[in-house]
Design a protein that fits this description.
GO biological process, one term: pyrimidine nucleotide metabolic process
Keywords: ATP-binding, Cytoplasm, Kinase, Nucleotide-binding, Transferase
CATH superfamily: P-loop containing nucleotide triphosphate hydrolases
Bound molecules: cytidine-5'-diphosphate
EC number: 2.7.4.25
CATH architecture: 3-Layer(aba) Sandwich
Helix content: 55-70%
CATH topology: Rossmann fold
Largest sheet: 5 strands, parallel
Distance between the termini: 22 Å
Catalytic activity: CMP + ATP = CDP + ADP; dCMP + ATP = dCDP + ADP
Subcellular location: Cytoplasm
Structural class: alpha/beta
Number of helices: 10
Strand content: 5-15%
Length: 222
């Protein structure tokens, strides 16, 4: 079973995905971290994230240890991530790893939750359930600003808002795997929801979808 969770930056999809994975005892893959690690690797090599070749090299050489780097939470990592993520060669270099987690979740888990931008549309088009988590951009900026401060990073609200708008536009308008809800995704707007309310709403959607999938496989078996 695969649960695909997509949505714009700071929509709360990461918190939600982690809680859902814990609830079902599924594996969890934060695919944004992969792009962040590639973006950071390019910056650290003194390269330009807009340079497709440099970004592709970094994606092919991605070291799992780099995914543990605390610097990945920073906004410069997010900005570099969305630049490297626009290159088709980077996206295809990271594809097998993501599909592998969905197809054979690590540690023998019965399922996987993947969160990102193109999980429901490109990486796992056959996911059991697809959620597209969103919220107003001001609400998202407020959440991200607080999150950065809580982690001890410097943050200015107006700058965070501008960064999110810029990143949303780049993620939405790119040609390869643009951010959009899959046709069969459930859109969850969390603007007026607490994290607990978003979790409850997501759980209702997932349970209904699982029931439907089981009924369908039962019908096919008859
Ligand atoms: O945590 P936040 O929502 O701010 O971002 P993230 O999920 O860590 O992703 C960082 C950037 O990576 C995004 O702005 C996208 O450009 C890119 N990304 C992507 O293109 N595809 C994914 N599946 C995940 C992230």
């Amino acid at each position: 079973m695969t649960i695909a969770i997509d949505g714009p930056a700071a929509s709360g999809k990461g918190t939600l995905a982690r809680r859902i994975a814990t609830h079902f005892d599924f594996a969890y893959l934060d695919t944004g971290k992969l792009y962040r690690a590639v973006g950071m690797a390019v910056l650290r090599n003194g390269g330009d994230p807009a340079d497709e070749e440099a970004a592709e090299d970094a994606a092919r050489a991605l070291d799992p240890v780099a995914l543990e780097d605390e610097a990945l939470a920073r906004d410069d990592a997010a900005r570099a991530a969305s630049q490297v993520a626009a290159h088709p060669a980077v996206r295809s270099a990271l594809m097998d790893l993501q599909r592998g987690v969905a197809a054979s979740p690590p540690e023998g888990k019965a399922g996987a939750v993947l969160d990102g931008r193109d999980i429901g549309t490109v990486i796992c088009p056959d996911a059991t359930v697809k959620l597209f988590v969103t919220a107003d951009v001001e609400v998202r900026a407020d959440r991200r600003h607080k999150e950065l401060l809580d982690r001890g990073n410097a943050s200015i609200y107006a700058r965070v808002l501008e960064d999110l708008r810029e990143r949303d536009a780049r993620d939405r308008d790119r040609e390869t795997a643009p951010m959009r809800p899959a046709d069969d995704a459930h859109v969850l707007d969390t603007s007026d929801m607490t994290a607990d309310a978003a979790f409850d709403a997501a759980l209702d959607l997932i349970e209904a979808a699982v029931r439907e999938a089981l009924e369908k496989s039962g019908d096919e078996a008859e």
